[in-house]
Amino acid sequence: MDKGRLEAFSDGVIAIIITITALLIEPPKGSTFNDLKEILPLILVYTVSFIMIGTNWANHHHLLKITEHINGKVIWQTIFTCLHFHFILLRLHG
Question: Rounded to an integer, what distance in angstroms lies between the CA atom of residue 64 and that of residue 50?
């Protein structure tokens, strides 16, 4: 497998997870600051989750950049990394 294809796979999975995570935040019921304060904890959790996913994504790309050959171990590591991102999404939803 080509490195670019593996990067495209992980980028696609991460983009979907971040999009779904953002869609979990419902807009405030009203237009006042007090209405916004009600969803502030969810926004904070989303922000922390986004930073965690972004940091792990950057680390994953760095690892792929220094990888010389793509083999089964690298493919499975990528799959488990994407699974880890999915667990962050599930935790945010639950």
Answer: 21
Q: How many CA atoms lie within 13 A of 70 on its CB side?
A: 12
Query: Domain of 81?
Result: 3-93
Secondary structure in 3-state letters for 33-82? HHHHHHHHHHHHHHHHHHHHHHHHHHHHHHHHHHCCCCCHHHHHHHHHHH
| Structural domains in the chain (count) | 1
Model-level pTM?
0.76
Residue pLDDT, tens place only, 10-60: 999 988 988 888 888 888 888 888 888 888 888 888 888 888 888 988 988
Using DSSP's 3-state secondary structure scheme, residue 6 falls into: helix
